[in-house]
Write a structure and sequence with these properties.
three-stranded antiparallel beta sheet, binds manganese (II) ion, 12 helices, minor pseudopilin epsh fold, mainly alpha, about 10% strand
Length: about 240
């Protein structure tokens, strides 16, 4: 196991110093990988209406953080790939070296999925407005139908995976499911929003009650952030 500087910051320098002792100096000399764990864009208890602070902290720091570390580890020694943006890596998985393709799929997918997931929360729920609201009415018949459709997808994810809304260049929306940490970019589609249905996302508070988590999750969405992603998709600037 390797400890990057970010890992140590994440774990708390004191704790790591106690655990590693003289290894610290060596770890600090290691080059940083191309990808970094983005800080949560709000306090860990900002989504308390749906997700408790402890779950947010563990999920962000260790699940997402671990994927970033593993992604960087997979890219070590692959100089050219390390310079590629994440969305390009995921869209061109089939071209990636076979020896690291699965690592890129799981950890690169996980990095993209979680980065999106943090960004679209931190809000107060409600409903979208403007162009996104119009697109939802056009493609699903209305917000309540859209929500029903998405909830069905969320509840239907068997095992670990995600429910996503994809958005195409013309603003067309679709609800899809993906297993594990797969991301629709792997099929050439871009993500507007998505929910993490891995048990680690909700188990501390909800245990087996996924429906309750899925219901509460709508109350912490930030539709201004999702609306910005929608505008970016139409402008061709949405990445992960
Ligand atoms: Mn997760």
């Amino acid at each position: 196991m390797t400890f990057s500087r970010r890992t140590m910051v994440g774990l708390g320098a004191g704790l790591v110093a106690a655990a590693l002792g003289p290894a610290l100096r060596v770890a600090r000399a290691q080059p940083a990988g191309p990808f970094t764990l983005p800080p949560l864009p709000y306090a860990p208890d900002a989504n308390e209406a749906a997700i408790d602070a402890r779950t947010m902290e563990i999920h962000h720091r260790f699940h997402h953080g671990g994927q970033v570390n593993n992604l960087n580890a997979a890219l070590a020694g692959h100089g050219q790939l390390a310079a590629m943006p994440l969305d390009q890596i995921l869209m061109r998985l089939a071209e990636m070296p076979e020896t690291i393709r699965t690592a890129l799929r799981n950890n690169g997918g996980g990095h993209a999925n979680h980065t999106m997931f943090w960004v679209i929360m931190g809000g107060r729920g409600g409903e979208p407005s403007g162009e996104l609201a119009a697109a939802i009415t056009r493609d699903f018949g209305g917000f309540s139908q859209f929500r029903e459709r998405f909830d069905r997808a969320s509840m239907g994810v068997f095992g670990s995976g995600w429910a996503f809304v994809t958005v195409n260049r013309h603003g067309g929306l679709a609800v899809v499911q993906r297993p594990n940490q797969d991301n629709p970019l792997m099929d050439g589609e871009r993500v507007l929003m998505g929910n993490d249905l891995w048990e680690h996302a909700y188990y501390l508070r909800y245990q087996n009650r996924r429906a309750e988590y899925v219901r509460n999750w709508w109350n912490v969405l930030d539709w201004s952030k999702i609306g910005a992603r929608y505008a970016a998709a139409k402008a061709g600037t949405l990445t992960i």
